[in-house]
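Dear colleague,

Thank you for sharing your sequence with our group. We've completed the structure prediction you requested, and as agreed, I am returning the results in plain text so they can be pasted directly into your records. Please verify that the sequence below matches your submission; if there's any discrepancy, let me know and we will rerun it promptly.
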Amino acid sequence: MTTLNELYSSLSMRRRYEVWFLRLGLADGSGAWWVRYLLMNPGRGGCAGDSRGSPVQVWATWFPAEGKPQSFIQGFPLQGLELSPRRQTPFRFAVGANAIAEDSCRGDLQVDGHEVSWDLRYASTFRTTLSHKGWIGFSRTPHSDAVFSGEITLDGRKFAGDPIGLGVQGHNCGYRHRNFWKWTHALFDRPGASPSTLEALVYEMPLGLVFRKCVLWHEGREYIFRHLQEMAREPGMLQWNFRCSGRHGLAIEVAIDGCGSSIHRLPYLKTDCSGSFDVLNNSLAGAVVRLLHRGGRVEELRTPRGAVLEFAGQAATS
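Please find the predicted structure tokens below.
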């Protein structure tokens, strides 16, 4: 059974990144966590000339509800990396005390005097593929409406619960990062009903083309939209407003607000090792989605901090 987490890269690939990540909004409202397990340029040992260019990396970013985000990134050599076989299940990525599998992950980082550890399990009812362009790259979501349980510890402060929170687990891969992209995932926890999720992705393609896709999971049904009409935004603001409609008779209006103190800027290394580019991420973004049904019925999904919004490249600077 395909799970969307299966390893694509071989260790001989000299130019490629592959990342497994999760965004977890804590149930107690105290903040959110963003965790990444990264494999980069394994055939050339990462980017050897850059101190941030280890071929294996584990990232953890804490987004407190009050205060500035903190990132903790630790690099590892290829020696000691354990990987499941390419395109086979069950999936596993492990290095040292850090690992991610189909439905669980753990970590133990010591960075600049800080200690971060986690032991999490997750389950979901919906998965989807946003983009698949063969060897060029893909964007997959093995767990779109993930429910997390377990514990996270930051410098002695412990977060724990069953559930501990809600969010998403994703899997991306590419020959190179796109020159720009916009991505969002929002989870709407609805009392008395199953959660709904919305995920949208826009990025540049060759020959001046732009990829656009939005997927809504609502009341047990998947709605796919391939034409996004984006609204203008103020320069420098981490906001994304768009509307779209489909042949299924549903139209949606989406407003994602990533402004505020939770905006986090991180440099990502290019896979050709020629430098880096900025990525803006707010894992405590707000989201409002209006569902315009055929016949005039209108629904509204709303979450004040249950979304993640990410801009990169030109999108992060315009």
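Summary note from our side: Residues 17-317 form one domain.

Kind regards,
the structure core
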